[in-house]
Amino acid sequence: CQHDGEIGIILNLSPTYPRSQDPADIAASRIADLLLNKSFLDPALKGSYDPELVALLEQYDLLPQIEEGDKALLAAGKVDILGINYYQPRRVKAKEVAWQGVPRTPEDLFDYYEMPGRKMNPHRGWEIYEQGIYDILTDLRVNYGNLPCYISENGMGVEGEERFIGPEGRVEDDYRIQFIREHLEWLHRALEEGSACRGYHLWTFIDNWSWLNAYKNRYGF
């Protein structure tokens, strides 16, 4: 039975930025992007894996067993639409000490980098980088055929918001209004340049209970 409609996938995407233009930092950033972004994006949107990723895995003898017909299945399984969960950037530097032997995790091949002066949400320990939403959409437009997409998650979790309840019983969350406004400004810029993003969804409309943190951090309107 055949049905009309669109089939998609939602991915957590964190744009990757090197600490500096030093070749070692750029190489580390590229490895992080291959393993943590492109390993999901390429098969879903292009129907194949990036040759550079394949070469990296071959270097460490980490390629999975490939069966006859696998490539055809990948090529036929491209999505029609993409959801993007974006919260924070990924900043990367070269390893201080080169990893020896076969890596066990992606982080064995690079180190994370805390950029001085970065804007932070201290309640989550996450960097706030509004331009990241623009950089993701630009990458999709330039390198992935500008597939129709939505921002499926974006938002700011804050602990102890009862401190900010005003006399009318309303949370005075100007910080959240600013967070959303500045992300939407970068989204608007991407749209002006031709991005096929069709919408923006905040996480979340109402507060939700977390299996890990209960209601410690509030996200909702």
Description:
- The protein has 5 helices and 11 strands; from the N terminus they run ββαααβββββαββαββ.
- The chain has about 220 residues and is of the alpha/beta class.
- A 4-stranded parallel sheet has the order 1-3-8-10, with helices on one face.
- It is globular, with a radius of gyration of 20 Å.
Protein traits:
221 residues; 11 strands; globular; three-stranded mixed sheet; alpha/beta
Order of helices and strands: EEHHHEEEEEHEEHEE
- Mean pLDDT, rounded to whole units? 94
Low-confidence stretches: none
| Beta-strand residue fraction | 15-25%
Shape annotation: globular
Report the major sheet. Answer: 4 strands, parallel
Could you tell me how far the N terminus lies from the C terminus, measured between alpha carbons in angstroms? Answer: 41 Å
> Residue share in helices?
25-40%
Helix tally equals: 5
Total count of strands: 11
Structural class, by secondary structure, is alpha/beta
Rg, alpha carbons: 20 Å
Output the strand order for the largest sheet.
1-3-8-10
